[in-house]
Amino acid sequence: MIGYAKTNSEKLLILGCGDLGRRLAGQLAPLGYAITGLRRHPPESSDNLQYVAADTADRRALESIVAEGFDVILVTMTPSERGDEGYRKAYVQTCENLTAALKTTGQTPRLLLYVSSSGVYGQSDGEWVDEQSPTEPNRDSGWRLLEAEQVIAQSGFDHCIVRFSGIYGPGRNYLLERVRQGRATLSARYTNRIHADDAAGVLAHLIEHQRMGDPIDSLYLASDNEPAPMAEVVNWLAMQLQVDEARFAPDEGQLGKRCDNRRLRATGYEFRYPDYRAGYKALMADHKTT
Predict the structure, then answer these.
(1) Strand ranges (DSSP E) for the chain?
(2) Could you report the per-residue pLDDT of 248-282, keeping only the tens digit for each?
(3) CATH topology (fold) of 11-167+194-225+258-272
(4) pLDDT tens digit string along 175-207?
(5) Domain boundaries of the chain, sorted by first residue
(6) Entry pTM
């Protein structure tokens, strides 16, 4: 998906480097990026990704790491515990410690990227939302994500915040398994999704776009091209899996929101999986071969 020339000079640091970070490394390492992934308990390093063990709550450890100098820093954190305090530590404290460490060490990355979520929107009547829509989350996690966004936005560094909708793909098969087991519900609520490969692809696209001198916005909503009612997705999956649709119970409730990705598409990004059908077809094909 990326057609840029190999650079052999860029350094990327990924805080909280999990599945998304590994996928991003797989796309950027061939272009010459030297990539470091920070985790408290990292796995073994690979040719694409060198891990370092550190806790983002330890500001001195962060200072030591960022002092090495990185062109791009990506923050993609998963809370170690659920609840408001866990969200505060993972999202807000990480961003506070990172920006403080950069200022203390005098480092200025060309781009600071923060992975946020469409969970910052609280709309529930089927409205379309975009980067200009009001953000009034209905969960603690959404409020803490917004707070972390503000830390990044007010840091003084060139930055980009990406609000992803629900990421699915290999290892993220919850809905697929619920349908397979006959335990899904037929809800009218809109579901917004993005395949994990596209989530990494969006980040790689924005990183390279900026490196090539093309301006990027400070905020993007990243979701595929087709929000759809959950009932539609469940019925389609049931047909593909040959599961009796009569097993699924209707679920009346709020309609949720629909994510508008036009700002992202205007940058030239082309989705590998533009809708749930393309993404789940690939996921089910992968299941058959494993």
Answers:
(1) 11-15, 34-39, 50-53, 72-75, 111-117, 125-129, 159-164, 166-168, 185-187, 190-191, 193-195, 219-222, 228-229, 249-251, 256-259
(2) 888 878 899 999 999 999 999 999 999 999 999 99
(3) Rossmann fold (3.40.50)
(4) 999 999 988 989 999 999 999 999 999 999 999
(5) 11-167+194-225+258-272
(6) 0.94
